[in-house]
Automatic annotation (TrEMBL):
Entry keyword Nucleotide-binding: no
Full protein name: SURF1-like protein
UniProt key word Membrane: yes
Membrane-related topology note: Multi-pass membrane protein
Region Disordered, annotated ranges: 245-265
Annotated PANTHER family: SURFEIT LOCUS PROTEIN, SURFEIT LOCUS PROTEIN 1
Entries under InterPro entries matching the protein: Surf1/Shy1, Surf1/Surf4
Length: 265
């Protein structure tokens, strides 16, 4: 009976190994290409040319999926009220800190406002330590982000420190001011904030790539892995059939040096 390590099966073993390695490698290559294309689309959006925020989102509009992380231009005036610190925000070097946030009216002061992350400050900074928002009309560029969700709301927003950047928490600090359902992370602090020691905030999220981005690559990867599995199946069937014991009355394979020749009377 032929054994699986028999010399006559070495060619099948080698062929199966080459086919599986090649197909698996091609699948990994296509999978990596899929990931790279999705990552590139994410980065491309954050590096896109800024557009006015009103072209992407209205005051009462739901947050658009295509707007996540998109650079937007905002022109308006910072409100006197509503400045808060958002706790639990890592700095550029990973140290714990807080975001400095102030609503900015989009247009005139009585127009709806969008919360703007002016920058990052150390964790021991209190609301009394932060610089006041710059006065007059301001124009800045930042990344658009959706309002954050939280299971528990801030229990004491009047203290000026909140755990999540939620529009619902900021509304409590304003007297009837309408707010956008989103916020903007400024690319860099304004000159007055930078002079006061406010650092640039880091972008929390990257925009998710479209589900169809790189679809062909991931399908090719799956196809190659199916080929690899099929090659394993064919190898297994061939080895199984070749090494199967002969049926009673059947002569052993005399061509195999390890075969067992039937005894003669």
């Amino acid at each position: 009976m032929v054994r699986w390590w028999s010399v006559r099966l070495w060619g099948a073993h080698l062929l199966a190994l080459v086919c599986v390695a090649f197909a698996a490698g091609m699948g990994v290559w296509q999978y990596d290409a899929w990931q790279e294309r999705r990552a590139a689309e994410q980065m491309d959006l954050t590096e896109a040319s800024p557009v006015p925020i009103t072209d992407v989102l209205g005051p009462d509009d739901p947050f658009p999926t295509a707007g996540l992380g998109r650079p937007v231009e905002v022109r308006g005036t910072f409100l006197d009220a509503g400045t808060v610190l958002v706790s639990g925000r890592d700095g550029a070097d990973g140290e714990d800190g807080r975001w400095l946030v102030t609503p900015l009216s989009v247009g005139a002061t009585d127009q709806p406002a969008v919360p703007v992350v002016r920058g990052w400050v150390p964790a021991d900074t209190t609301i009394d330590d932060v610089p006041p928002p710059p006065s007059g009309e301001i124009e800045l560029v930042g990344w658009l982000q959706p309002t954050e969700a939280a299971e528990d709301g801030d229990t004491d927003p009047e203290q000026g420190v909140i755990p999540h950047l939620r529009v619902a928490d900021l509304v409590q600090l304003l007297d009837g001011q309408d707010l956008y359902g989103a916020y903007v992370v400024a690319r860099e602090p304004l000159a007055a904030d930078a002079a006061a020691g406010v650092d640039a905030a880091t972008l929390d999220q990257l925009p998710p790539a479209s589900r169809f981005t790189g679809l062909r690559n991931i399908l090719y990867a799956i196809e190659w892995w199916v080929f690899a599995a099929f090659a394993v199946f064919l190898w297994w069937r061939h080895v199984r059939d070749t090494t199967a014991a002969p049926l009673p009355g059947e002569p052993a394979d005399v061509d195999d040096p390890e075969g067992v020749s039937p005894s003669t009377a």
